[in-house]
Sequence to fold (454 residues):
Amino acid sequence: MVAPLVYFLDDDDNIIKLVKYGLRNEQFNVKYFNHPNALVDAIKMEYPDVVISDVMMPEIDGIELIDKMRGLARLMPVILVTARAAVDTAVRAMKAGAFEYLTKPINFDELKLAIGRAVEVGHLRTEVAEMKSGFKSRYSFDNLIGESEPMTAMREFIKRVANVTEAVILMRGESGVGKNLVARVIHYTSPIAEKRYLEINCASLPSNLLEAELFGYEKGAFTDAKTSKKGLLEVASGGTVLLDEITSMDLGLQAKFLSFIENRRIRRVGGLEEIPVDLRVISATNSNLEADVASGKFRSDLFYRINVVSLAVPPLRERDKDVILIGRRFIDDFNIKFKKHVKGFTTSAERKLLSHDWPGNVRELRNVVERAMIFAEKEYIDGDEIALTSIGAQVAGQSDGLHLQKGLTLDQVEGEYLKKVLEWNNFNLEATANQLGVTRKTLWEKRKKYGLLN
Fold:
């Protein structure tokens, strides 16, 4: 692993000597500068992971230096160090975009922690910036494929909702319809597209860990809390967060989440301070929320609060010939993945696709096309190459419907069996978990392993 590159600037050579000694045993590659121009020239040749600068210098102060560096490396975190612990200076530093503000004499434990956090944030900023350029095109309205009436209506609805960044949105739809894709389109076509987008699957963690992931925690809040940590809601502030399978939250966490939605403030686990957080909240579920409320599994007040803007993502069986359009897009994708040149479906293949009711929705269609593409040898996929699960096979025990190729590894067999059990249960996650004899968390981990998430 390459050591993080750190630039340290101070016009006092004694401070530089002190910092060299204090960081001598750390896994940082530190380069020292005693003049701002020398640091700026160095940045033109090589981007550091983080810059640490004194605030008060003869020709230019550290805050002005931040502005000067922004054009060279906009995503690079800057830590400012000063002998003056003045509130107005700290405010100016943060407004200028400083990542952190430390005072002299330098506390090296604080400095090391600040460098570690800054390096991590800098890497995340770079990754996000690189992905965003591709995400905007990947998650444009053009990627909501379909000409059916339900899809046309949904696209128009999304165009109106995307611009209202304060809206609380509830997405409902069967498993596999593409709720995650819709959430990303909402984010990346909105005014906050440059901000963070995070997905959190509420079924993937036990309640206590989910609370810590969502809200963060303070040092000492529990046994393993060696340092404080921001929660995902705080990290995504300014952007959009998708809470998938929200009905998996227990009632206690639902109450805390309701308080956050109403007040837009969070309190970390073990903390007293209320932290303002501004983000768009999208909740998603494939459950019957009204039934969950009636049974006491889901809080009625939270239901009413997240149901301000409700968006129903239509199942594939209600989208007419969209199945062919989506299938052709999958062919294009798998042509790249498998280095093939398949042009489309034959008439018999299209008839077969249109006759199926797609209990697993778009996810099932993707699996069907992928399976056909793996074995495709001609320019067009024919009807006998489309392997569909019959309706009767959806009821576990009536028919196995599972056909395995020779030479599969144990992992591949497990993945194929998991696909089949999901299909048998109409992609009902609770029924699938019960049949397999595993928890919802284990099922989520297996779905993630084999690419069977939404």
In short: The longest helix spans residues 108-138. Residues 102 and 111 are 8 Å apart (CA to CA).
